[in-house]
Design goal:
single chain, 767 residues, alpha/beta, eleven-stranded mixed β-sheet, 31 strands, binds zinc ion
């Protein structure tokens, strides 16, 4: 190479850009900017993110470096950028380079699936557009990503779209720097892309393309259940305004009362059924496209069977063009729930026609494979702030950037292959790859064989996608959890973490409080604490490596063990028995004297009557005493009813007694139970609210005793918006800073993030 004639004003730089920069239209953005400023060079994806080479006039490069981070188009996001001077080489023009996959992804973020964008939505509804009514329309900012990605870096060749060679028009758009589909890796059109098909499972009706969507519309109007292949798996759709159709879906899905999500055509249609403010509309319309829990309007035509006993409905906007085209022709919203039975995993590519025929009357299928199964995400707004309840499509895998930065501050990072296995329910795993910490998507409850098998496959696939080999397992201390048992059998080293410590650490990651002790309110159903004791309503003073229980509940007897979880009346009877020494005050509608005698026997003898300091169980007991919620079909159901009925204008609370026993502040709930029983004259709404307020009083009492620490909220009880508000307001009113629920789920879906942080904390301490 001949040496260039150096001009004093000419410069060359090499940039490394880290963050959400693949699969989000970042390279075309850089090229547009470079072309506009007349800067030469190239941009490409690599193992770590994006590299950029810039060459040209020094002043112009300077402008580019300033504008680049400032004008990044959503959903791209720069976390860090490194700039290094390089040798000038007199290059001309600016190009996007495609990259060969290399072994192992290191710092590159896995792109997440994006809901249909506004521009693509306009195109599919525009009769003059060449993608009019094409159900797989996507662009640089929208479409499937994680669910179709076999390997990093994110390029068409590494996705399932490699089996659909682009037609000449698509490839023209792909290569044209001024087109909005320049380097849109998964784009297609009707001439070259996937195709939709319809098959009735009741008769021989079948079709493809446009007619397939029409047939599905007809089936839904008739009240049939249609299985639709979505972005991360099959969904079951049925008209949401038809009680009988919804009940039929519940029977086939074996899901008696857990709420179902509803898909609406537009924000306008949503506003007919739920109350929408600006935060709510924004949450619905964001690129992550989650299910948002929203307060129901009394005039909504959505069947009550969709969310029995609750005052909110989970609503989402169309995820894909296929959903949008389908809903456009329906005069009602549809239930859109994962296609599975009970707590089994969502059905994906492996679904057999029998699996689907058991659940649906027809199937709206297509030939774009789903590589990774993924449920819809669920979020709730608490005081206008997003709190993720199920981390899945759009949000997962979630980079734990606070944890990564914390590890970075500790010097040389530990090697990869740390896998945190999560808990037993709402399982999700987390990885440390050597350069990244990520929380994986919601998988489900690990009790069933099918879910467990799906979980194991997912764990290995996720590690592979991130280019890391499992080396150390981090598991919950509970010896009977399926994940813990699997870890013990793996032959790899296993680190144990206590359940509530993991909850606390997850919140410390969320709020970047990794270097100092926090006061963690870890409130949930049950988890194993030290000494083989069942915990569940704990206030901990915690660091990443240590924790001390500073407050708890008087342990609640659980007559019949697990049966008490399904039958809250047993707990209600136990609360009465403990408070009064007998069960004469038990409001026993629908429970026979014989059943009550059976429970009293367990209470008297202590046989089959474990005790747990569980706030979740205290909620169950109070829900039964206030509402007669004698039995439940899913964990947290009784508490959800109690929240739904509580009158938020009521500010009074029942008395609480907090006493220091062996150095621990113990909330004795017996005076609270007695006050509730004495208050039978008040409405259920007031009583429910007073119970919530009593819990906030407990939190305040504890916080006053520990004035120095910031507070974090974690554990499944904080899915309850009213409880979270009351607790946060009570603490903030005494000047406490409170880390509220955020992106990392407060329920067991966030446990793995905490487990991983604790393992990294131990590494930092022992180094
Ligand atoms: Zn788009
Ligand atoms: Zn095409």
């Amino acid at each position: 190479m001949s040496a260039p004639i150096a001009k004093p004003c000419r410069l060359a730089h090499r940039l490394r850009v880290f963050g959400d920069v693949q699969g989000v239209g970042f390279r075309p953005y850089v090229k547009r900017l470079a072309d506009e400023l007349g800067v030469s060079g190239c941009v490409g994806n690599d193992r770590d993110g994006v590299y950029i080479e810039l060459e040209g006039d020094a002043a112009r490069i300077d402008v580019l470096l300033r504008r680049l981070p400032r004008e990044v188009p959503c959903p791209a996001r720069i976390e860090t950028m490194e700039v290094q001077p390089i040798q000038c080489s007199e290059r001309v023009g600016f190009s996007i380079e495609s990259t060969q996959a290399s072994a192992g992804a290191r710092r590159a973020r896995i792109p997440r699936d994006r809901g249909l964008c506004a521009a693509c939505r306009r195109e599919i509804h525009d009769s003059h557009d060449r993608r009019h009514r094409y159900p797989f329309t996507s662009c640089v900012v929208c479409g499937p990503r994680y669910t179709v990605l076999a390997r990093m870096p994110y390029e068409r060749a590494g996705t399932v779209m490699t089996q659909f060679p682009m037609c000449s028009r698509c490839s023209g758009e792909f290569q044209n720097p001024t087109d909005r589909r320049h380097h849109a890796e998964v784009m297609a059109c009707a001439a070259c892309g996937p195709e939709v098909s319809f098959q009735s499972l009741c008769d021989s009706k079948a079709s493809v393309g446009e007619e397939a969507i029409r047939f599905a519309v007809d089936a839904l109007i008739q009240g049939q259940i249609v299985a639709l292949k979505g972005i991360g798996g099959f969904q079951l759709l049925v008209r949401a305004d038809d009680s009988e159709a919804v009940a039929g879906l519940r029977a086939r899905k074996q899901r008696p009362s857990k709420p179902l999500a509803v898909m609406v055509r537009s924000l306008d249609e949503a506003s007919q059924h739920v109350h929408l403010g600006s935060a709510e509309s924004e949450a619905l319309a964001c690129a992550e496209n989650p299910i948002v829990l929203l307060p129901r309007r009394s005039e909504s035509t959505i069947a009550l069977e969709v969310s029995p006993h609750l005052n909110h409905i989970g609503v989402l906007l169309p995820t894909t063009p296929l959903h949008s085209l389908l809903l456009e022709n329906l005069p009602f919203p549809v239930v859109a729930t994962s296609c599975n039975r009970g707590e089994e995993p969502i059905l994906g590519e492996e679904a057999t026609s029998k699996d689907i025929a058991d659940l649906a009357d027809a199937v709206l299928d297509h030939n774009r494979p789903i590589l990774r199964r993924l449920d819809d995400s669920v979020v709730r707004l608490i005081d206008g702030r997003k709190s993720v309840i199920r981390l899945a499509r759009g949000y997962a895998p979630l980079p734990l950037t606070n944890l990564e930065r914390w590890v970075g501050r500790k010097g040389e990072a530990p090697g990869g292959g740390l896998i945190a296995l999560g808990g037993q329910q709402k399982n999700a795993v987390a990885l440390w790859t050597g350069a990244q910490a990520v929380l994986g998507p919601h998988i489900g409850d690990l009790e069933g064989n099918r879910t467990f098998a799906a979980w194991r496959d997912h764990l290995l696939e996720l590690s592979k996608l991130y280019g890391t080999e499992p080396r150390v397992m981090i598991a919950d201390a509970h010896p009977d959890y399926a994940a813990t048992r699997w870890a013990e059998d793996s032959g790899l080293p296993v680190e144990k973490v206590f359940h509530h410590h993991a909850h606390a650490a997850a919140a410390m990651v969320e709020h970047d409080l990794l270097d100092r002790p926090v006061l963690a309110l870890t409130w949930d159903g049950t988890g194993l604490g030290p000494g083989g004791v069942l915990w569940g309503g704990e206030c901990l003073r915690a660091t990443l490596t240590d924790f001390e229980r500073i407050s708890t509940l008087r342990p609640i007897p659980l007559p019949g063990g697990d049966a008490a979880i399904r039958e809250p009346w047993r707990i209600a009877a136990a609360l009465i028995w403990e408070s009064f020494g007998n069960v004469r005050g038990f409001p026993s509608s629908n429970i026979s004297a014989k059943q009550i005698q059976g429970v009293v026997r367990l209470l008297e003898t202590g046989v089959q009557c474990p005790r747990a300091s569980s706030l979740g169980r205290l909620f169950d007991g109070f829900a039964c005493l206030i509402l007669g919620a004698n039995t439940v079909t899913y964990e947290g159901e009784a508490a959800a009813w109690l929240e739904a009925i509580a009158d938020p204008t009521v500010q009074e609370a029942y008395p609480i007694a907090v006493e220091k026993i062996a150095g621990v502040l113990v909330w004795d709930w017996r005076p609270t139970v007695k006050a509730l029983i004495a208050d039978q004259g008040s409405s259920a709404s007031s009583r429910a609210a007073r119970f919530h307020n009593s819990i906030a009083d407990w939190a305040r009492t504890v916080a006053i005793a520990y004035p120095d620490e910031d507070v974090v909220c974690s554990g499944g009880c904080f899915q309850n918006a009213l409880l979270t508000q009351r607790v946060c307001h009570a603490l903030e009113s005494i000047g406490k800073r409170v880390g509220r629920p955020g992106l990392i789920p407060v329920n067991d879906g966030g446990l793995a993030a905490g487990q991983l942080a604790i393992a990294l904390g131990r590494w930092a301490k022992n180094r």
